[in-house]
């Protein structure tokens, strides 16, 4: 009987995947209108895509922006939710990492919460902060506001949620009214889902002891429910609605075919190979402001998983001490070459020289005499994705780095 049930479940899954693949053709047509219909990024320069090499892990940064100033729709918006999706293509593993919005970072030389990055410089600024924080490359991003969130959840038909706490909160200025009773099972449509997603305290001051960290726990429960919905046959009749909704309310630098490809791949990942987590750290008041202090040591295992180059377990076979590294500063900011030199020396590059180079907007690495399989490691070590290979210098084993204005300072 068990074998029959397994084969039946497997057959249903295969049918679902087949239908999704077929509908992908129609999905493609809808998604072609992403750039035309999206209005979330007006006035901002497009964010550069970072192509992943074959077998390299894919990192997608999802950002949900808040409503901003209800009286001024053009005012820059902060991010209310920041989620990193890390996909190991070779081992078919998925890490979904929530980044607390109060995480302390340095933006333009000032201490800020990471959720301010988007308000200051749009998606590009937030991407740079996450790349610097976790020492990874972000390949793509996706962004929605709460209006988009509501419509997308409606398009999948909502989800059923067991309520584990009494939730009673009202904010007339945002037209936000949250009322759920502990013990209820509630069907969350888009509006109700937003209320559940945003709640962290009640009108009387009670609520989540850990504030935003507790709210992230609720959000992860919600994300799990959404994943389950997408993996079930119930999503199939909803696909046309999803296809019609996404282009209207989402902003992304992914191509339509990439969205289809990775959505399909994510659906195939077993729950056992899916890790949903939150960055570790502690909440702390600094200068009267509450911050989340990211703890790099406490996140060591997660960082190893994010930074690992899949299929390159022998990456340590690259003898960094034997490589000539020349770092040139192509900006007006002093000290960048020296700072990068100090950093990479700690990573094993002992033969490093620095100097000034021609002024340039984009950072670049020129590699000579080094196996291509080590390029992802070099990109990660130097925080630069623009890599050229020059093997015209016979016998030369070198890395030349030109720091441009876009370097993650």
TrEMBL record:
<dbReference type="Pfam" id="PF13399">
    <property type="entry name" value="LytR_C"/>
</dbReference>
<keyword id="KW-0472">Membrane</keyword>
<comment type="similarity">
    <text>Belongs to the LytR/CpsA/Psr (LCP) family.</text>
</comment>
<dbReference type="Pfam" id="PF03816">
    <property type="entry name" value="LytR_cpsA_psr"/>
</dbReference>
<keyword id="KW-0812">Transmembrane</keyword>
<protein>
    <submittedName>
        <fullName>Putative transcriptional regulator YvhJ</fullName>
    </submittedName>
</protein>
<dbReference type="InterPro" id="IPR004474">
    <property type="entry name" value="LytR_CpsA_psr"/>
</dbReference>
<keyword id="KW-1133">Transmembrane helix</keyword>
<dbReference type="InterPro" id="IPR027381">
    <property type="entry name" value="LytR/CpsA/Psr_C"/>
</dbReference>
<feature type="transmembrane region" description="Helical">
    <location>
        <begin position="12"/>
        <end position="33"/>
    </location>
</feature>
<feature type="domain" description="LytR/CpsA/Psr regulator C-terminal">
    <location>
        <begin position="322"/>
        <end position="407"/>
    </location>
</feature>
<dbReference type="InterPro" id="IPR050922">
    <property type="entry name" value="LytR/CpsA/Psr_CW_biosynth"/>
</dbReference>
<feature type="domain" description="Cell envelope-related transcriptional attenuator">
    <location>
        <begin position="78"/>
        <end position="231"/>
    </location>
</feature>
């Amino acid at each position: 009987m068990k074998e029959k049930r397994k084969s039946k479940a497997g057959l249903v899954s295969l049918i679902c995947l087949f239908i999704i693949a077929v509908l992908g053709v129609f999905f493609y047509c809808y998604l072609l209108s992403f750039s035309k219909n999206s209005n979330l990024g007006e006035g901002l320069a497009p964010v550069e895509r970072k192509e992943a090499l074959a077998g390299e892990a894919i990192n997608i940064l999802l950002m949900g922006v808040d409503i901003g100033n209800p009286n001024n729709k053009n005012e820059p918006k902060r991010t209310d939710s920041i989620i990193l999706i890390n996909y190991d293509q070779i081992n078919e593993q998925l890490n979904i990492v929530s980044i607390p919005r109060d995480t302390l970072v340095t933006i333009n030389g000032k201490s800020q919460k990471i959720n301010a990055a988007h308000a200051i410089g749009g998606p590009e600024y937030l991407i740079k902060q996450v790349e610097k924080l976790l020492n990874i490359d972000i390949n793509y991003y996706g962004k929605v506001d709460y209006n988009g969130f509501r419509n997308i959840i409606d398009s999948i038909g909502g989800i059923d949620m067991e309520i584990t706490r009494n939730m009673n909160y009202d904010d007339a200025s945002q037209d936000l009214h949250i009322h759920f009773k502990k013990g209820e099972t509630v069907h969350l449509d888009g509006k109700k889902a937003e209320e559940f997603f945003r709640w962290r305290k009640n009108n009387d001051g009670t609520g989540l002891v850990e504030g935003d960290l507790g709210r992230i726990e609720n959000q992860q429960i919600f994300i799990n429910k959404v994943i389950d919905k997408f993996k079930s046959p119930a999503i199939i009749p909803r696909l046309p609605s999803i296809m019609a909704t996404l282009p209207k309310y989402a902003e992304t630098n992914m191509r339509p075919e990439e969205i289809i490809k990775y959505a399909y791949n994510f659906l195939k990942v077993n729950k056992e190979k899916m890790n949903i987590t939150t960055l570790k750290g502690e909440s702390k008041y600094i200068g009267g402001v509450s911050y989340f202090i990211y703890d790099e040591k406490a996140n060591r295992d997660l960082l190893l998983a994010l930074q690992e180059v899949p299929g390159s377990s022998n990456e340590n076979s690259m003898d960094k001490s034997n490589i000539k590294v020349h770092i040139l500063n192509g900006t007006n900011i002093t000290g960048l070459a020296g700072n990068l030199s100090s950093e990479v020396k700690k990573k094993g590059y002992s033969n490093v020289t620095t100097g000034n180079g021609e002024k340039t907007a984009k950072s670049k690495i020129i590699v000579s005499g080094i196996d291509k399989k080590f390029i992802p490691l070099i990109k990660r070590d130097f925080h630069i994705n623009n890599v050229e290979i020059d093997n015209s210098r016979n016998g030369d084993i070198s890395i030349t780095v030109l720091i441009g204005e876009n370097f993650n300072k």
